[in-house]
Automatic annotation (TrEMBL):
A GO cellular-component term linked to this record: mitochondrial outer membrane
Protein name: Cdgsh iron-sulfur domain-containing protein 1-like protein
Iron-binding zinc finger CDGSH type domain: residues covered: 49-87
Signal sequence coordinates: 1-20
Taxonomic lineage from the root: Eukaryota, Haptista, Haptophyta, Prymnesiophyceae, Prymnesiales
Keywords attached to this entry: 2Fe-2S, Iron, Iron-sulfur, Metal-binding, Signal
Molecular function, one GO term: 2 iron, 2 sulfur cluster binding
Ligase among keywords: no
Cofactor field: [2Fe-2S] cluster
Biological processes, Gene Ontology terms: regulation of autophagy
Top-rank taxon: Eukaryota
Length: 104
């Protein structure tokens, strides 16, 4: 009985989303940017793309990680932030973690 109630509730929520979502979709960039505010709201806004590089002695190689939450290879960056930045006027970029030379 509980399973049926939960299943009906999930179905109702899904139908409400599917039927209601198109009302909020528009092709206007201004309207879209109102629904999707910039990811980066305050850090280094004068820079066209904020990229942070962290060097660690305990790792080998380099990792490039997504900070825009749009990557199809998440958590790795696939440069999806480029399209996001162009469409939304944002400046989010990846986090780069790479090996550092040991301190002498």
């Amino acid at each position: 009985m509980l399973f049926r109630i939960l299943a009906l509730g999930a179905l109702a929520v899904t139908q409400g989303y599917v039927l209601g979502a198109p009302k909020f979709v528009t092709s206007s960039r201004a309207a879209v940017s109102m629904h999707f505010p910039p990811i980066n709201e305050s850090v280094d806004k004068g820079n066209p793309k904020v990229v942070t590089t962290v060097k660690c002695e305990d790792i080998k190689g380099k990792g490039v990680y997504c900070r825009c939450w749009r990557s199809k290879t998440f958590p790795n960056c696939d440069a999806s932030h480029v399209k996001w930045n162009e469409e939304r006027g944002d400046n989010v970029g990846p986090l780069i973690v790479m090996a550092a030379k040991p301190a002498e």
